[in-house]
Amino acid sequence: MEPDRIQLAHGNGGRRMRELIRDIFARHLANPLLDTDRDASALPPIDGVPVITTDGFTVKPLEFPGGDIGSLAVHGTVNDLAVAGAIPLYVSLNAFIEEGLPVATLDRLIASLGKAAREAGVPVVCGDTKVVPRGEGAGLYLATTGIGVQDAALDLDMAYIRPRDRILVSGPVGDHGTAVLLAREEFGLRSDLISDAASVLPLVQALRDIEGIRFLRDPTRGGLAAVLHEIGHATGFGAYLEQDAIPVREAVASVCEILGYDPLHLACEGRVVAVVAPDAAMAALSAWRALPQGEAAAIVGEIVDGPIRVVLRTPLGGERVVEELEDNPLPRIC
Prior knowledge:
- Helices cover about 30% and strands about 25% of the residues.
- With about 325 residues, it is α+β, with helices and mostly antiparallel strands.
- The strands form 3 sheets. It has a 7-stranded mixed sheet. Strands 1-6-4-5 form a 4-stranded mixed sheet, with helices on one face.
């Protein structure tokens, strides 16, 4: 496709825009339901309760170890549906492209998005593109809508949470936030750490036949701590965490120690936080650990009957209150 950088003409409705859609979006996202000559797509009837979500993606940089904004857009959308107890079916895509973005970069990112969508089994069924003037964007922003169908075997709600329920995480926390932070090369730090960005649908499906699964959430912005504070404000319950039970990679812990971050506040993009009944905790843990994605899953704490706070117990027997974030230490993390 010519020229080699995005121009404003790629968004004017003319020849350049047709070439952009044909040569990049239609080529990488092709599937029987996507018709780029129509303004809307007709979907087959859904047998069950439809579930819908929407999300936006502004991650910086656009490509990072373990993923990019394209694959992240699919995983983020699929994950929101999955932890709501839905089976993801379809995704729509809006792309806001900045003038001057190399066409090769856009091609690579949309190819990655298409690959992630095929692997997740969720076709992109409609979309739109806009081009914004140079300096008014950050290369590429994406917005998605996801449609799924409620899984009758997963009845999930914060209202089901009770004191003494166990808190589980499906793997190490903070990988995505740390990987993106290091990819920005702002602090002179290096690591082989990669983002955990992935579909969590296999993790959710592994729990569907276990009674006592109360609530699931993917700990994106604000991390594990944000999920537990959200639960507290919704239920009136507190949470106790055991520091030595929480899986944190050495690279994440080191970066946090150097820069003053708390891994409990850092985003994950391929993990699940589960709140389960006490007698279901070991079954849920075993189901997760049987999956490659859940090998490092752990029971990290429990829900307690007020006050509304998150408390971390240290290995030496001390306690630290994990405060809710008041600022945004890592903007544009997803």
